Backbone:
């Protein structure tokens, strides 16, 4: 997956395509706005479908409405890389369209991504390195790394990461950790507590009161029928018979005080409604209790996943520190201190740990960290501008051990003779009016005698 050539037209003043051959180790040298970042961004777009640090953003940018700003002309923009085996990856986007990414995929790790991970919380840094360093683990191993809990965490874990018998990746753990918050909100008892207030007037129905209302309703319906019929008949015998039926309904005084059937029906309906609300209230109380328990379980799982990641990362981070030191000069010992809330890097010199690094030491350290993260077939992009000529030369020397390709950008040449292992690219800026600006040559030719490569790259912001 070694990239041998990049071709693109992003940031070109006229939308014309340009190309650059790449080797295992590459250094792009040129003044600001000369085209160095255009090469790095084209590599990222073609290889990954996104680019880092564009438009003042400290994260990967892949949305078409943002990447369209890389065009300087009303033309389709594209970026394509060719690999050593002849295969290609291509990113392209038409004006007003959506990005399209085809071909092989590889990894382009800019230093800015590392810097962003380290400038956030300890949790953010730990998750970033987990995705790069942690090997998949079995479900059993993950659950064993959970701290002791008052809850059975296997049940909420099954809801977030169903057990299909597959190993669990770091990305799965990180996603599950994020989803715990969503599940907590789904399980919250707030809604059910609000319902308790609405149903506060509900109470259990009194069967005797219901029976009395039913009897009164039936009596009222019969008495109303008798009164209506009594008015309609004319015969004395019929009226007398109706009076006898009315007497059977109850004493005359009670019948006078009898309410209308509609009133009794309204009272019964109110009783039944309150009983229905009472039953709903009982269900809500049960749901509220279960929801509160579920929310507590997901909160415990969230903390357990964070603790598990901290535990599982102990060994990979120790091995990572060992790899980082391979890319640092003698006398610098890299280390990481991390716990549940902190994640700090340091350089140890003469037994003293330095956490606040100078600009050059920081650049060198970030380069070594990136090289230790990249695997064979990846691309490490050192886009930092805080080099000095001596520090840059030392960094290049150590990067010669890198298993991945390296692309360094610098506004000046490294100290000393050009190193034969490196592909020196003199990036000559081209202005919008077509007049080329020429940078002063300050570095001697490579030991091999081959001339320094030049190109017309366009990096106009």
Residues:
């Amino acid at each position: 997956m070694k990239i041998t050539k990049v071709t693109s037209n992003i940031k070109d003043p006229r939308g014309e395509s340009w190309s650059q051959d790449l080797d295992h180790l590459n250094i792009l040298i040129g003044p600001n706005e000369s085209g160095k970042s255009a090469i790095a961004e084209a590599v990222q777009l073609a290889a990954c479908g996104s680019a880092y640090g564009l438009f003042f953003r400290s994260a990967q940018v892949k949305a078409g409405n943002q990447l369209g700003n890389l065009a300087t002309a009303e033309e389709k923009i594209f970026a394509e890389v060719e690999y050593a085996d002849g295969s290609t990856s291509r990113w392209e986007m038409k004006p007003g369209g959506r990005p399209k990414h085809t071909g092989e995929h590889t990894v382009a790790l800019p230093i800015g991504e590392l810097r962003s991970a380290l400038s956030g919380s300890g949790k953010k840094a730990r998750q970033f390195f987990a995705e790069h360093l942690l090997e998949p683990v079995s479900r059993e191993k993950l659950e064993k790394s959970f701290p002791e809990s008052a809850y059975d965490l296997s049940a909420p874990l099954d809801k977030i990461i169903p057990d299909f018998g597959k190993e669990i990746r770091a990305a799965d753990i990180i996603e599950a950790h994020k989803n715990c918050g969503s599940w907590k909100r789904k399980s919250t008892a707030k809604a059910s507590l609000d319902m308790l207030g609405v149903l506060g007037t509900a109470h259990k129905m009194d069967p005797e009161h219901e029976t009395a209302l039913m009897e009164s309703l039936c009596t009222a319906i019969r008495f109303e029928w008798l009164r209506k019929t009594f008015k309609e008949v004319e015969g004395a015998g019929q009226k007398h018979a109706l009076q006898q039926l009315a007497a059977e309904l109850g004493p005359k005084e009670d019948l006078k005080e009898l309410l209308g059937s509609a009133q009794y029906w309204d009272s019964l309906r109110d009783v039944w409604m309150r009983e229905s609300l009472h039953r709903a209230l009982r269900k809500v109380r049960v749901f509220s209790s279960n929801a509160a328990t579920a929310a507590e379980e997901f909160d415990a799982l969230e903390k357990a996943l964070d603790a598990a990641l901290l535990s599982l990362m102990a060994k990979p981070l120790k091995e990572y520190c060992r790899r980082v030191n391979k890319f640092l000069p003698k006398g610098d010992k890299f280390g990481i201190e991390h716990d549940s809330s902190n994640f700090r890097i340091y350089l140890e010199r003469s037994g003293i740990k330095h956490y606040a690094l100078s600009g050059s030491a920081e650049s060198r350290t970030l380069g070594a960290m990136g090289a230790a993260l990249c695997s064979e077939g990846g691309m490490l992009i050192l886009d930092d501008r805080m080099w000095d000529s001596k520090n840059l030369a030392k960094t290049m020397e150590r990067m010669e051990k890198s298993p991945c390709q390296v692309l360094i950008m610098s506004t000046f040449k490294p100290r000393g003779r050009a190193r034969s292992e490196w592909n020196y690219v003199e990036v000559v800026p081209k202005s919008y009016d077509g007049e080329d600006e020429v940078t002063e040559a300050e570095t001697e030719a490579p030991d091999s005698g081959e001339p320094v490569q030049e190109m017309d790259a366009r990096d106009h912001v």
About this structure: Residues 40 and 381 are 7 Å apart (CA to CA).
